[in-house]
Specification:
single chain; Rossmann fold; alpha/beta; globular; six-stranded mixed β-sheet; 333 residues
């Protein structure tokens, strides 16, 4: 099994290399590709050092699985070339997510869609992945009518440049300097911005509409969903406040039981001992954590719940989900 990572020097690409090693993915050869300016760098895979090579359209020859995390522009240009040369491309960008010929997959939710691929499989948006793992488990037992979500997304979702800017702004502020603003339209340190990606004509951001459209595609469902996405001064891990309305009654205890048996989910919910998930606690973990599970008393008939969902956006929200898809390809279950 010959595997490659495209965009290997980025935050997600590096994590893909790390996760492949951690999960003992059965590969015989790993190739690493990136832009010309990153070519020549050396990355460690397990105990082996691998030199990063410049990405070219011919690089897909002989590759079995290609993990892409180099942005939509690169994916649109190079992923079809890799697929044409026989590789199965698992793409982490937004390039193909809503393409009707490209399955959008979260392995705990819709692994059966993998077999529908025509050379390219899309990895969903990070905020979508962690929420759909929870929603799908509940929806299988009690049909969902409507979802309202507000996200609290870390700067690592924008990439290393945003992480560096947050660090620099905090340092500048403590030294009494005016922080430099480049990555976001406003200072992110000690602030939050209700604006992720570009604004659309309908007043929503592209990130918000991604969540709406991707969840419907993954779950093959048409329940109503509305989202507000917010960037917060946290380095890693996204959090989500989710209100779920069902067609029939569901108790918080019933929901906890359903979610406790869901693959990839950890229920952490004990207000008496202040147990609930938070970004620092889930960093470095592959599971989706859920807590603050409680009845929404504003909806009659015990038909709604409030949930708090937290996950490492670089791991489960990107790298780990992609590797899990690759595992399903080689070991179908």
């Amino acid at each position: 099994m010959k595997v490659c990572v495209v965009g290997a020097t980025g935050a997600v690409g590096r994590k893909m290399v790390e996760v492949l090693c951690e999960r003992k993915f059965p590969l015989t050869e790993l190739s690493l590709f990136a832009s010309e300016r990153s070519a020549g760098k050396r990355l460690t895979f397990c105990s082996q050092e691998i030199t990063v090579r410049k990405l070219e359209k011919s690089c897909g020859k002989g590759i079995d699985i290609a993990l892409f995390s180099a942005g939509a522009t690169v994916s649109k240009e190079f992923a079809p070339c890799f697929a044409a040369d026989g590789a199965v491309v698992i793409d982490n960008s937004s390039a193909f997510r809503m393409d009707t010929d490209v399955p959008l997959v979260v392995p705990e939710v819709n692994p059966e869609d993998i077999r529908l691929h025509k050379g390219i499989i899309a990895n969903p948006n990070c905020s979508t992945i962690q929420m759909v793992v929870v929603l799908s488990a509940l929806h299988r037992v009690k049909k969902i009518k409507r979802v309202v979500v507000s996200t609290y997304q870390s700067v690592s979702g924008t990439g290393q440049k945003a992480i560096d800017e947050l660090k620099a702004q905090v340092a500048d502020l403590y030294e009494g300097k005016k922080p430099e603003v480049k990555v976001y339209p406003y200072q992110i340190a000690f602030n939050l911005l209700p604006h992720i990606d570009v604004f659309m004509e309908n007043g929503y951001t592209k990130e918000e509409m991604k969540m709406v459209n991707e969840i419907k595609k993954i779950m093959h469902s048409d329940f109503s969903l509305t989202a507000t996405t917010v960037r917060v001064p946290v380095f890693v891990s996204h959090s989500e406040s989710v209100n779920v309305e069902f067609y029939e009654p569901i108790s918080s205890d019933e929901a906890k039981g359903i979610l406790s048996s869901q693959e990839g989910v950890i229920v952490m919910d004990d207000p008496a001992t202040l147990k609930y998930p938070y970004p620092l606690m889930v960093e470095g973990r592959d599971e989706v954590f859920v807590g603050r599970i409680r009845q929404d008393f504003s909806i009659p008939g015990s038909r709604a719940l409030n949930l708090w969902i937290v996950a490492d956006n670089i791991r489960k929200g990107a790298a780990t989900n992609a590797v899990q898809i690759a595992e399903k390809i080689i070991i179908p279950k």
